[in-house]
Amino acid sequence: AEDTFLVGWAPGQLPLEYPEGTGLTIEPGDFFVIQVHYHYEIAVDPDASWLEIDIEPATSDLEPISINRYLTPAEIPCSTDEEGPLCDREVVAEAMREEYGLLPADLINLGCGVTPAAFAHMTDGVAWSSCDRVVQEPGEIVSVLGHMHDLGAQYRMTLNPDTDREMILLDIPDWDYDWQYSYRPVETIELQTGDVLRFECTWERSRRDPNLEPAYVLWSYGSDDEMCFSTVTTRPLR
């Protein structure tokens, strides 16, 4: 079966509702895998996680929703005033390989045509990343989302950058981890075959928990790791 991203929740988000007359197709035998980040001070509280889904019969005449993920590198070297064994990228990378069996950062770098060397000079406490991706699926935009973790400082998503058709789809000049949202356009925006999306993320090491050991930060799933994660949700062109 195809691995399909269903929904993600982050602090600040409201329940996800698709436009009337649309839906995400679920086939017999499909199942959900849910990843949850837990935060606790001392003791582990009982799990109170839950998921609520509105459903319609398969015979309903609904337009299919498509949720496309776009991943952009996140490589954040230690600043010049930080030192420690975890400031060595390879030490951090090897620990992640042991934990996850692979290194997401390397795969994402490869997809965007960059290497860790491209970030090696970013030692003043600020790091940034950019990646241009060809649109995965044409359609009318339903919503867009950008996601980073605590070090996130700025986020931007641009359609057809550096052309006369350039359009900024999402611009967050002062990232707040506790205020993340799926944004819907106020006018119709269509993605066509061959269109390009640019994703840009900036991180500031000054936002890192001072109680944490200095470390090179990579794209990964832990809350103390980082991401430059984007989704573009579309419905069929009409």
Description:
With 238 residues, the protein is mainly β. It has a single domain, classed as Jelly Rolls (Sandwich). Helices cover 9% and strands 27% of the residues. The protein has two helices and twelve strands. It has a four-stranded antiparallel beta sheet with strand order 3-12-6-9, with no helix packed on it. β7 and β8 form a beta hairpin. It is globular. The mean pLDDT is 93.
Write the CATH architecture name. Sandwich
- Give the proportion of residues in helices: under 10%
Q: Give me the count of strands.
A: 12
What shape does the CA trace take?
Answer: globular
How is the main sheet built?
4 strands, antiparallel
Q: Report, as a whole number of angstroms, the end-to-end distance.
A: 28 Å
Radius of gyration: 19 Å
Give the averaged pLDDT, no decimals: 93
Strand order, largest beta sheet: 3-12-6-9
Q: What fraction of residues sit in β-strands?
A: 25-35%
What are the defining features of this structure?
mainly beta; Jelly Rolls; four-stranded antiparallel β-sheet
Structure, briefly:
The chain has 238 residues and is mostly beta strands. Helix content is 9%, strand content 27%. It has helices at 89-100, 104-112; strands at residues 22-23, 63-64, 66-71, 75-76, 126-134, 139-147, 152-159, 167-172, 190-191, 196-204, 217-218, 229-235.
